[in-house]
Amino acid sequence: MPSPAPHDRLPLAFGGDYNPEQWPREVWEEDVRLMREAGVTAVSLGVFSWARLEPRPGAYDWEWLDTVIGLLHGAGIAVNLGTPTVVPPAWFYRAHPDALPVTREGVRLAFGSRGAICHSNPEYRAAATTITRALAERYGSHPAVVLWHVHNEYGAPVLACYCDVCAAAFRGWLRERYDTLDALNHAWGTAFWGQQYGDWEEITPPRATPSVCNPTQQLDYHRFADAQARANFVAERDILHRLSPGVPVTTNFMVAPSQGQTVDYWAWAKEVDLVTNDHYLMTDGRRTHVNLALAADLTRSVAGGGPWLLLEHATSGVNWQPYNPAKRPGEMARNSLGHVARGSEGAMFFQWRQSQSGAEKFHTAMLANSGTDNRGWREVTDLGRRVAGLADLRGTRTRGDVAMVWSWDSWWAQSLEWRPSQDLDARERLDSFYEALYDRHLTVDFLPPTGLGDLDPERYPLLVVPQLYSAPVGVGADLERYVARGGTLLVSFFSGIVDENDTLHPGAYPGALRDVLGLTVEEFDPLLPGETVSVRGADGSSYTADLWSEVVLPGAGCETVAVFADGRTAGGAALTRHAVGSGTAWYLATRLTGADLATVVDLALADAGITPVDLPRDVELVVREGESGTFRFAVNHTGSEVKVVLPDGSRAAVPAGGVEVFRDPR
Ligand code: GLA
Ligand code: ZN
Known about the structure:
This protein is an alpha/beta fold. It has a nine-stranded parallel beta sheet with strand order 5-4-3-2-1-9-8-7-6. Helix 15 links the parallel strand 13 and strand 14 (488-492). The two termini are 39 Å apart. The structure holds alpha-D-galactopyranose and zinc ion.
């Protein structure tokens, strides 16, 4: 368990990843001088420094790091000290080539990048804990070290390894989970395609198979890979807790990428002392600031609503997307303060100084290769001043207005092959429902699909379930309790279908949610690419839907609010409303987007008694409150000045593209 390490010594953070090992000594003094000029209060140091710290096995070189930490401490800059275990040195791999991970196809990945780690490899585990112990012994009580940064972005770029060592570890993990082979055979449904196991030793990782590999086997392997990485984090964390008491331990999360192998941040957040996150704007044609808000809300949510820290974002363009546009003037500050509005205790960047070589030399930084006479530097120093001016909002909490359910485990399960449509995408539904709420200027708190029965409808009058394919037994009853006590629930299609073993809930779809929604689904009828259907509301409204239709049979007490007006399921219910106790449960049986989805969300908001704030599109109003006061962040993503109404009825201007923080009078 995490020690109750306070993060009191961590200032409201402004700074970035600092990689002095890429530079000669002369540059370090200049770095520290310019950091002071920019208002830097904290840096993340040593994240990739293993080869420099231990150039030969067991021979440590501390002198350079002593010097750098001393320089930073002398300048009053706090250190978030990295354990460099995401990149073991070349000599380590030469001695232990088996520590390199193996893909599903059996390809062993090579050294020369980063994150090439088999998390089950005993030599890697021993080496990682040894370097961590050495660092903790040397710097554990250094007054500059206020936070430990373990590893880097666990799960990226590779989470799972499929080597023989992992295979053996997987069998051990399965024995713990299932106890008996009978239980495993049952959970995996091995009666299908004759997969029954008669001996634990017959079980292998879900390596490349001729056709689709058993989905439960794949899902369990993802869980196993997550657990292996987490165990390695915990091993490092426990050493740091022992040798560096009182200094909190974190590892930088990446809560919101829309694809790729992820870890389960609900589980990871329980293991860190302070949740930290990395966020980068995606250039994918969507409204990137909405994704930023979602990432910040989700990070705060995994942190239990408490403080968290944005550990990395970019001053301007990144260099790992196909196209990497620069941020517009003012956009960096708007992004940084947008995270602060949603609970971050500061804003940190990758990285302090732009690299001159290596894979990320085109990635922008706080200090560009061209020096300080440029817009970027001027904006960085301005932002440093602004962050300093917000110092007393530390410890205040952002208040969420509505709640939404998100499960990484369900997302993994749904993302496996051979679903009714290959275009089903839980992340897309999450993004779209979030966007609809964002457009009503509502702040979202995310919740895991557990303990929902205790959710207070007064605190969260609306609960949205965008797509919860896999619903553990009990979720339906929990949701029913929430609704019966006055909550408004909005569930969208392909939810409540399977249990945690990817096994269909017994009876008609949507197994786990039939009772609370008051309906059954007789048949799925996914739409083809490009195919749309019309949906018509009883009030005359009409919508255009795509991707999904199904045959819904509303039960007694379940009202049909809109029907499929054409298509193969014409005449059947597309939107229903079921009164349960003093609340209502809505069900949307198809995919709506944009204004159409917003209209449906508005119906549920009206039921929940939530009157949206009157503000222009792309203007955020987010409130942080606590002992030091109430701070209202108005974030204006539009190209014109806007006016916001403050609690005293006065109207205040927020410049085009700007952010204003209004403090309630005490
Ligand atoms: C990630 C990593 C950093 C750096 C940035 C670049 O977040 O943690 O080391 O590679 O991306 O955007
Ligand atoms: Zn392995």
